[in-house]
DUF2132 domain-containing protein (Halopseudomonas oceani), 81 residues
Amino acid sequence: MSSTAPPDHSNADPLHGITLKVLLQWLVDRYGWDELGRRVPINCFVHEPSLNSSLKFLRRTPWAREKVEALYIASLPASRG
């Protein structure tokens, strides 16, 4: 997914129907790895980041996934809903 527009959310839950891969790719497209690592300072974003290694880490680390999901929600345009 190379579009910078977030996926459509017809449900009240902004994460409904969004896979972690799509969510992370959207954040990387929007911010880039450097800025993402500043906003969510976890090693998988700061040291040799890649989509696959980050997904693996986030899937097994609930606290880190929560931070990434919170950034995604905060980054959505205010007019959503």
In short: The first helix runs from residue 20 to 39. The chain has a mean pLDDT of 88.
